[in-house]
Amino acid sequence: MTDAPTAGPPPGPAGTGPADEALERPRRARTAIALVFAVHGAVGGTFVSRIPWIQDRLDLSPGQLGLALVMPAIGSFVAMPLAGRVVHRHGGRAAVRGLLSVWCLALVLPALAPSLPALCAALLVYGATAGMADVAMNAQGVEIERRVGRSIMSGLHGMWSAGGLLASAFGILAAHQDLDARLQLPLTALVLCALAQPVCRGLPDFRAPEEAEAPPRFALPPRSSLVIGLVGFCAVFAEGASMDWSGVYLKDVTGASATLAAASYTAFSLTMAVSRLAGDAAIRRLGAVRATRLSGAVAGAGGVLVVCADSPLLAIPGFALIGIGIAVVVPLAFAAAGRIGTNPSQAIAGVATVTYTSGLIAPAVVGGLAQATSLTASFTVVTALALALLPSAGALRRAEPDAPAAPGADARPQAEPAAAPFGR
To answer: What value does the CA radius of gyration of the chain take, rounded to a whole number of Å?
Structure first.
């Protein structure tokens, strides 16, 4: 598929609407949505880097901390279906700006919580705002991708990963300097919120037609999105299991040192981020279905290496291959959901709900299986789910980008666009 032009066709007649900016200034729109993803990732990366500080301040046991860290997923699960209503009512640009700003400011809450119940409440709000912003920005990204006629979603999710990695590095530096998180998190929140304002001004303002019916305030995911969500489920399960258990696996199964065990997470995260940033080129060359099948094969090969590993020299490359393999699957799942029916925001919320649920349960399932059998047996299940991407890849055929849309032609808006987390 040919690259999008650097400048779109001449502006249409008066009244074509601000959504046509996606074609008139495609580079600006793509840069703006990429930076939105990076800001969203930076909020998450900042919070994760200060979890140990929060645990020490509140003197939480591992079980108490685990309970608190379930709350963001629950908040996202409950709030994500509401995002379509917000986008419909306020338009794509305003919805992303408002929800992203609230998500940035929610970063303040966990550091200020004086007790475990207050922390759980803060993380519920944190997760709810994260999920709604995730749905809105993915809807915007899919609509921009549809209009420029080339794959961009993998790169957007790569920007999310890059933002998270960069912010977590600053968080680690702050922790090393013994900077109080009650100072660092509010300052970071204000900086990111301020950055989000000019970034969001570059977004096209996709809006629903006046005659379009508003989506329900809350609705179950459409059945058409569930099959796509199950593909994302397999990828996110492998991601969550690898992120949370790779270090433990290296230490307990392969006898790695604590330093080398920690390096497995870095290898996994970096390979996934780089693969997402480079993934759009592979998707354009191979198509969504073939790219997903190749992803499943690579992730499955990595899982086999992990399961067979008797030394870190096999396990670390195995986790790196899992990261490479699953990198583009979730972006493709969002892109496919965004092309379902007349209310793609609802479809994206449905896919995000299924995939994020996978990320929530994966660490617990791996731990339970390891308790009953062994970690090696647990990662045999992870490998099987990665290989399941091969036969199920056809569900993502909708993620194939169309030719660039002409201004005013089939302009399906983001609030209820024909194309519309977590995410992430």
So the answer is: 21
